[in-house]
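Whiteboard transcription, Tuesday session. T.W. wrote the structure tokens on the left side:
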């Protein structure tokens, strides 16, 4: 199984940014743990703070991979372009959030990705990524 985790803006700051919300673990540490937990999964990772780069990556992998785990972060709530990219590809996408977006500011309750996603996982911390992998297995 070939999966990719695609992370959006500010997720490169995990472990430093608002640890009371996002935890104290870096994503690189979490990614290594996921690779070790799922050695038979061909797991890839991409992060960008730039909306167009996220769209380009979705286009690149959206016809060849078995699944995409997408945490578009703030772009989830603002990017029609990323939502359209998810709609336009064949690979199933699971939308992931570390925090419970529905317990946060009202603007975070709207997702342009969810209507075209296989599912949405939110609020389980960094374990949200593990739950997304499990959804593909």
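and on the right, the sequence the group agreed on:
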């Amino acid at each position: 199984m070939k999966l990719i985790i695609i992370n959006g803006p500010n997720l490169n700051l995990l472990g430093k940014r608002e640890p009371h919300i996002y935890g104290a673990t870096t994503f690189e540490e979490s990614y290594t743990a996921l690779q070790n937990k799922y050695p038979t999964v061909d797991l890839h990772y991409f992060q960008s703070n730039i909306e167009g780069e996220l769209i380009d990556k979705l286009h690149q992998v959206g016809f060849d991979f078995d699944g995409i785990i997408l945490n578009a972060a703030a772009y989830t709530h603002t990017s029609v372009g990323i939502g359209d990219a998810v709609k336009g590809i064949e690979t199933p996408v699971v939308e992931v959030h570390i925090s419970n977006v529905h317990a946060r500011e009202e603007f975070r309750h709207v997702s342009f990705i969810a209507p075209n996603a296989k599912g949405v996982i939110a609020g389980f911390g960094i374990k949200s990524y593990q739950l997304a992998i499990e959804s593909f297995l």
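Someone added at the bottom: The radius of gyration is 14 Å.
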